[in-house]
Model the fold of this input.
Amino acid sequence: MADTTLNQGSPEVTAEIRDAYMAMTRTKRMYGGIMLVVFIALMVSGFMLADSRNAGGFWNGILNIFQFPGEVLAEASAKAANLPALMVKFFPSLLETINIAAASTLVGGLIAIVLSLLSTRGLARFPALIGLFRRMMDIMRAVPEIVIALVLIFILGGGPVPAMIAIAFHTAGALGKLFSEVNENADLKPVEGLASVGANWSQRMLLGVVPQVAPNWLSYALLRFEINIRASAILGFVGSGGIGYDLKNAFSWGQGRYDEVAAIFILLFLTIVFFDQLSSHYRNKLVGKV
Amino acid sequence: MTAIADMPQTENLHDTATRLIGRKRLLAFAVPGVILAYFVYLFFAFDIPGLMDRARMDNAAILVADSYSYKTHVTHDNRVGGLGFAVEGEAKGTYPEGMVPEFVTMSGDDAARIELKAGEAAEIDGSTLRYTVPDYGTVVVTLEGREILLETPDGEVPDWISASSSRVNITGAGGRASVTRARTEVFRYAFGWELFWFTLDSQFYGKTPAELAGLVLSGDRVVDGKSNLAAIAHDVWYNKMWRHGDVLWAIFETILMAFLGTMGAALVALPMAFLAAKNFSRLMSIRFAMRRLFDFVRGVDGLIWTIILSRAFGPGPMTGALAILITDTGSFGKMFSEALENVDDRQIEGVASTGAKTLHRYRFGVIPQITPVLLSQVLYYLESNTRSATIIGAITGGGIGLLLTQAMITQKDWEEVSYYIVLIVLMVMAMDTISGWLRRRLIKGA
Done:
């Protein structure tokens, strides 16, 4: 021991340390290399497999990729005069899509608030049930919207409500998890203060916790709203209300209605970009990001 | 002196405080009020009253009942004669010749007694049906020429029987029966997913797990030329009713879509992110072009990309993977370039001071700094894309999303629908767990 400490500066020891270091680097590089090879193998074989199970192959498709947008563009520019009128025509369905997203964000957010408060340590009303509420949120998050939407379409018929319930269900789970992470950082002193004057659980939460966490909650809810607009457009395509449904109709009609397709594409694009900018602007304001 | 000088200030403070509290009070009422008003607007915009009219609660009952139970049809063909037994009335669930469900006792070629639940029983004798209900008596339905005749013990038709000259339906507490000119049928409900492991034509149908284990260990071969284990696996994998093989393939395809799409997007987005980051790309115009490209790709949205690509590539997992790839390239590009702008310059300078070239500076100065952020984002997207891939599959026609929509469109195989839903939820939760585990393993201390 003492010898090595004394001889630290000697060339042999330095060489030893260098060898050990180089050996370590080599193993690390080898592992990195193996990981890389495995990853590349996975990507390549996955690509080949997906290609072989696809109806049209990749290499055929890549040549046709501009064919459909080209057709749409050609027809839309030929009927360019129609576009403003068509956009006005589809505006109500666009409003419905936005309404679905807003309503589901609101409903899902409200449920998420309750679930998140019930599943945060230190705040929970029933501490023994924290695990239960967390698993509940896990499951709500895991169910894709389309599953609930399709089942509800069977029961309730087409329209905006199935989509709204489906998205709200997923939103409640997704936001609940994020909200409870926010809650964990809340200061417990106001809660204790309120408890000391005899406030009940809902009063403690409403007056002690909500003012602290509301900006962060709102910021997550805005982000979710943006995601939900996309989701509600997609759900419309599989059969429940909004602009997605119109898009599906125009699209399956094929040539001759591509001006409608183009009008919907433009509306959808503008809406998404608009809400994207809006939500990121307010999120920066709320959370005070530099 | 000071007190007097302070007076107006205090007054001011008091005013500000009152105004502030007043505004907060207003807000406290206004926010719930606005939300409430919005819900009232939605109530009419979404036509909730009309929806309640249109809602088919009987469909919901069918769906729920069908998802955890199955029915066996006992059918007498009234035109050509002969009794048949089939699970869910489907050809792939038909009992082979000479095989009879255990609740049926044959009393002739065309006659059988069916034990139903709740003490009820039904007898089919040719086209004649005798349905016995305890504490009520026996309902007899006969077919005379083209007329269907109903005889009840007290001569009246109770509300659980619907009768006309061309059709009689009996809905008992333990089963159902119907008589038409074409056939006399009795339905017996039972709990569970029937034929889940083996269909009726399999040699292993009706065997207990212990018997199966015994067969696996024994040397006698049930199917020639195959070991018992292989034969069992074959019969489960190619189960005609549940199509386990196809379903697992579809699940795998969905995961493949998510994996290829996410990883591909990350690989494409990384070099582009360097071009879009302020501290790596000197040219303002390139930076601007890249950013607008990311915004455009994100703005067009997965739905539109999916539609465009499904035109070019046809249905299948490749289309879904590419749709995810393109959409996420925009998101990743934006996030990666933000991460790149936040890197610490000192590490890069340190690497540069050893005489490293540009590539080495990136490799050893930049990449190690952004890897944790990148990895955690990629893994998070992988998990959420598993869900998206289900939806995209439903649109383009690939993976479990396609199977799910197909099963829903037929509107009768709800047990299959619930099977798929369970599998989808398990798949997403498994991906959730794996990506969480990987995130913790790969990003230690980050």
